[in-house]
Every structure is written in C-alpha cells, then in structure tokens.
User: Fold these one by one.
Assistant:
Number 1:
Amino acid sequence: MHFEILVEDQSGKKALNILIPKLISNEHTFNVHSYKGIGRIPKDLNANSDASKRILLTQLPKLLKGYGNTFASYPDDYSAVVILICDLDSKCLKSFREDLDEILNQCNPKPETRFCIAIEEGESWFLGDIPAIKKAYPRAKDAILNTYINDSICGTWEKLADAIFPGGSESLSKKGWQAIGTEKSVWAEKITPFMDVENNASPSFCYFRTKIMNLTK
C-alpha cells in the first residue's frame, strides 16, 4: 500500500513523518504533504483555486480529483490511498464529515480515501500520551496535564503550552502566530519520537491508527 497523506501545516508533517513508520512496515510507502493552513471547503466544488496558496480544504476538491485520475492509471497490483488529516477546531464533526464526503463523491474516478480528524487539534494526539510528553519535557506541569479530558474542546494547543512552554500559552500567544507555528513544530519533533502508538488515550488518534493499520492488512 502507498499512502498519500495531506496535513494542514508543517508541524503535522513533522509528526506524521515520525508516526507513520511506527504504524506500517517497510513494505509500504508514504508521502506527507503539508499545506499553509486548513482554510475552508469552497462553496463551488468545481471552481478553480489558486494552487500557489496551498490552503488544504480550499485545494481539496482539485486534489482528490487529481489523485482519482492518478490512482486509476496505476497497475491493478499497486494499491494507493489518500489520508486527509486535519483539525476539527470548532466545526461540527458530523457536518464536516458530510462535507468531506460530498467532495469525494464528486470525483470520477474516486480515489481510495480516508478522513481522519484530530479533535480539537493535532496537539490532542500528544496529550493522549502523557508519558511521551513527560519524556520530552521532564518538567512539564502535571497539575495541568492531569486536568486534560481527551479530545475535549478546550483550547488544546494552549493546554499543552501551559504545561510545557515557559510562561504558558499567554506568553507564547504574545509572540504571534508565526512563533506559535514554530513552537508547534518543536513539540512535534520532541514528543512524537516517544509516542507509543499502541497506547494513546485520544479517541481521534485511535481512529486514525485503526484506519492506517486496517489498510495494511
């Protein structure tokens, strides 16, 4: 199986490049493609989008149609799948999945595709593995980590920042979004190597893990 993995930012790519080899054997292959933000699903799914902007949901109709055509040209003994991984943020999960399915259903040919949504944000997958956070950041604040409810809508990256970043999320927020993005990439590089993919308390991570592993059976 070959995996084409789409993620919304650079920190997600750094994390997935470390996580995926923990989930699949060397006989499978993968590419992780990062974008410059999640954006929104366009109202007109057939409209042309500016590919140079590299906004994930804005580009998704075009991307899935392209993968559908590409996969259709592969020999019968070569299997490939698109995995979309993005944050739920404040969206309704049910309606968001319906919107994603609508994009996929307009593709002809339709690429094999799985949608994996991090609830609320990608940092929820880190917070699902507190031991990994503690190995990467031995001085992480237990009092904050222990109050986290897995996959809750609570300001996930802020919760992690409050536990491990000097001055917490308030201090990091003052530095601006570029600094936040840079710090998220640092978290991905430091925490992900310690993650135990078999033992993660985040339901959305477990859903992602199951989808990946089922595809390789």
Note: The CA atoms of residues 10 and 34 lie 6 Å apart.
Number 2:
Amino acid sequence: MVTADDPFRILREELDAIAAAGLLRQRRIVDGKQQPLLHVNGESLLAFCSNDYLGLASHPALIAAARNAIENVGVGSGASHLITGHHRLHQELETALAAFVGLPRALLFSTGYMANLGIISALAGRGDAIFADKLNHASLNDAAVLSRADLHRYAHNDLAALEHQLEKSEARRKLVVTDAVFSMDGDLAHVPQLLGLCERHNAWLMLDDAHGFGVLGEHGRGALEHFNSCSPRIIYMATLGKAAGVSGAFVAGESDLIEYLMQTARTSIYTTAMPPALAAATLAALPIMRDEPERRMQLRRLAEILRTELRLKKWQLPPSATPIQPLIIGSGEDALRASEKLREQGILVPAIRPPTVPHGTARLRITLSAAHTEEDIRRLIHAIHHAEAEA
C-alpha cells in the first residue's frame, strides 16, 4: 500500500522488478548529426540501429529547406490544423504525399503513433471489429484497445485464421490492421491476399507502412507499389521519420475517408500542427526518394552482403529482404551481452527484449542505411563472428 509519507515506494518496487528481469531500459545521448558513425555517450560508434534508411536525415537539401522555412515562416505552427496551424507548406505536403503514393488525398499527423491512434479510434468503436496481426506495432495494438471495438488477433501472416475470423464476424464494420513491413522481423505482410479477403468480407484494410515507405517499390512509393495493389478499401499510413529522414506521419486514401478523418480523428484535431519547417524538409525529401533509386539499390546490396557472408553457429538471422535484419539471440540477458560485445568493438546494435518481442526471441535488431558502406557491413560481420564465438 502507498503511504502518505512515501508515495513513490510502489513505483520503486516495480522499477526494481523490471531491473531484476533484465528489462530496464537506458537512453543514449547522441551528439551531432544522424549518420553511420555516431557520437553516442561520449564515444564514436558505427551504428546499425537507425531508421534513416535512405541516409536523408542529414541531407543538405533537407537542411536547406528547413532552414529557409524557419527564416521565412518561423519555428512553431502556433495552433492546431483546424484553427490557424494549417500552413501552406502543410497543404503542399499533403498534396505531394497523396500523389507520391498514388492515392486521392492525404492527411498529416505529428507522429506515426498519433496517426494510428487517431485513424483506428475514428473508424472503429463499440459494435465494430478489428482484426490484427499478432506481430503488429504497439501503436496499432494500443489503438485497437482504445477504440473499444472487438479485437481479434490472428497468428502472424496466417491468412486462413484471419479468413475464419472474418467469416464468423457479424460486426457492422470490419477493419483489418497490419504492419506492411514488420518492425522487429523485417518481413512483409501478404498485402494482395489480405486485400482479397477484405473485398470478399466487406472489410477495410489498414496498412502501417512505416518501414516500407521510401524503401519498397521501384520509385520508393512503398508497399502498394511493391505489390502493385490498389483499392478504395485501403487505408494507407506511413511515417516521415524513417526513410524520409524528417518527422511526422500521414494517412492516405479515398477523399471521403480523409475528410472523415479530418473531422473525427482526435489526435489530429486536438494537437498543435507539426512545424511548417518539417513539412518543407519533407517536400525536399520526396523528389530525392523518387529520383535516386541507387539509394534503395545500395540497401539491397548491403543486405545481400550481410546475409551471404555472415556465418552463424549459435545465433539465427531469419529471412528478410528489407533493411531490418533481426539477429535472434534468445534470452534478454544474452542479447544484452552480445550488444555489449559489439560495443567493445566499436559497433552499436542495441538489444531488443520482451515485451517488445516474444520471450525467447530477444535479438540484436540490425538496421541498414544507404549511408553505410560495404566496408561497414564487413566490419559488422567480423564483430558478430567474434561476439558469437565468445558467447
């Protein structure tokens, strides 16, 4: 029981329990720009943990666009989008994003987490049903619970299980929700088959393409281009803080859908709009994403080198054709030790532990960037071989 003279005792006890389980998290302090050679906690480390997939976070064109916007329109937006915070740059970015992914209209959000909370809670509620892959991102899970709709989770990429759930459902509104690229494993959802199920069972398909936007597809347009999928049933969400190198998120889809979300998505209505300078920087990123396919080619080349030359005896590297390469270690303690062994060799790959991933699958989540070199990858491979030998 919490006493009046010690109101924080119960919190300390819970923190002690987290620490005893080896699950206490620590923040790292980064100095300087986002780049492969990162200055972290006072030391220079070759980092394989950024979502800056195309190496745009420090691109001169994005920096110049943001600087110019700050000088001309200031730093903050001053209000929510529906008051006076919706700047011309926001409008231009929404139009450009919709055109980029090939959908009629788009709506900006301040973060991907806020986008998922706002979209799902606006479209589903009591009497509705949400069908979610068990490996979905935490924001999708939280949004489903907060919506108060009936939540049905299906085994990862198990289309037969999903179809069975859809067939049994008598909900007035059905929403299938999935990552397009799963953030901890790097594998892809079966988008065409999912869309077929939604069409047969009168459901919407919401894709969280945070890790596919800018990476997948010939022109970096994401999962829809990769799978050549198009349907008015698709609700497409992507973030701007990964391949685009900036910050924020957007949802794209049919005009009626976006208008409805603009009117009802609480995480859009009741928050200050993102700084216009970030919109300007993202506008500068889009043509680079589209017109420089060599960045995506570099990502594929680096992943192939890693997968071809890494020779594992104890640990596992499951299949992944994306920049996310999960090195499965096992226990959280072993993953922490492996991460520390790499740090001692000048390489930063943080350990990912439960509850972020299932028990027994703690891992080093390697993420590649087009800014990495082949030499960087071979240095990583050598360090992993050395760490595994000592494990």
Note: The CA atoms of residues 122 and 265 lie 5 Å apart.
Number 3:
Amino acid sequence: MNTMHASVPGTETLSHPPIPQEAFDWYDQYAHGIIDRRTFMGRLSTLAVAGFSMSVLLGALMPDYAHAEQVSFNDPGIKGRYVVFPSPKGHGEGRGYLVTPSALKGKAPVVLVVHENRGLNPYIADVARRVAKAGFVAFAPDALHPKGGYPGNDDEGRAMQGALDKAKIEQDFVAAAKFLKAHELSNGKLGAVGFCFGGYIVNMLAAVVPDTLDAGVPFYGTPAAKEVRKDIKAPMLIQLAELDQRVNDTWPDYEADLKAAKVDHAMHMYPKCNHGFHNDSTGRYDEKNAQLAWERTIAFFKQRLA
C-alpha cells in the first residue's frame, strides 16, 4: 500500500488554512447527484465564517482543464481521431476518441478509457493520450454522443448524462469494448481503465462481458450488480482513495465476491486522498499518489495485455 501523500493544489494560500474535508465531501455529493447545486453552494457559503471566499473554494473544487493537459493533442508521438461504432443494443451508434502511437507498426494491446459521469471531457481525452504514449491503442467513448457529445462544461454534461437511459449507456460501452477488441490495430487483448462512473463501467464490463475484457483498472468505482460478479474472469487492479467513504463502503462486499470467484486482483488504498485524486484539473488532485497509481496502471496493462 502506498504511503506517500502530496498537498492538494489550490487548498492552501498565504491567508487561508487548508480547505476543510467537508467541502470535498459536499462536492462529491453534488457531482454524483446526491445534493443539488443550490444545496452545494449553500453549504460552501457556511465556510465564509472561517475566512474562505467562494472564489477560493470553487477554484479548489471545480475543474480547470486549461492547466491540466499532460499530453498535447499535437504531440508527435501520438495520432488521434474521432471514430464511430455500432451499438445496436444501446443508442444505435457510439463515437469516441481513438489515439494510437505514431510509431505503431502492426498490432498492439488496446485500452478502453472510460470517463466520469459527465461525458468525454478534456481530462479524459488527455488520459487517452497518456495511454497511447505508453504504447497502447487507446479509445475513449463519449456517452453523450446521442445528445451531440460533451457540451464543453461539466455541469451541463452531468445533466445530459443523467437524462440518458443508463442501461443503454452501459450497452454503448459494451459495444465500444467489443469494437475496440476487434479493431484492425488490436492484438486481441483488451484492457479498460475508468474513473468514478467509468470505474463502475470497468467493473460492469468485467462482469457482463467476461470473455471480452482481459484486464480492468477501476479508479474509485462502485462494483457491478452482485448477481453478475460471479462471472468476472479478468484480473483486476482496484484503485481507491482513503477519504472516499461512499465508494469504500462497497469494497468489503466486492472483495468477498472477487475472492469467491477466484479472481486475480489487487487493491491499493491511497492515503489522505479524495475521490477523484487522479484528476489533475481539480483541487482533489494528489500528484504523488496519482503518479504512483498511474505507474501501477500502465505496468499492470503491460503485464496482462502482452
């Protein structure tokens, strides 16, 4: 288990102490539809008596994609384009961001990159480029394609995704996984990495299409329905954040089911981290733990998809 911890960017200033943990908890509840925006903002306003301005709080909690890009879309080491795929049991057609290593000759392992509950935002597109830089063919579908795609901001994207049929969204990702595994550039080995909602989708794919997925890395994602977990076959690398009580509460039961199904799995609990600690566009980002989790992810795929 990792024991490193980095300070969270944006949570300390010369005039303010670290932002209280409850602010991050409230944001998690807001981001997952447990409370609405009015309630979220109202709770944040209570911290004004502690000397926090709303600009400081929102600057730490809300995404800033302009400062989060790690791999440019113009990077000469990768090639990216958008492609469509059939999804007859979902919304009919899906669309996603396909990124390949520029030096690729022949076939390579393929990795599905699954976004959070707000569509294919710039952070997830950047993660797809990072996967391609590591030598894999990466594909990041956009669940919002039926509505025209990610709208340019997370609040609207979250509302759009929430209005779509969840069962059809799941079938779109099943179709995307099968499309990617059968792609002409695929060596026949499919991995999947996802974050938050995307972590759930990775767990779901492992359970409902066990002969399609060869390795899964869910970041702070809830498990699939209990009745289908017995079908999981793929090795799983579970990435959790110590302060993410909502998701962590689901782990003991999930772990028991993985053991019962004799699934090769490992779980890493990253200390003092919040849900979303890998997302470098927000104040929840924990650089050292995110880097370690990513190194483990890439090493896992290189081992399991060779």
Note: The chain is about 35% helix and 20% strand.
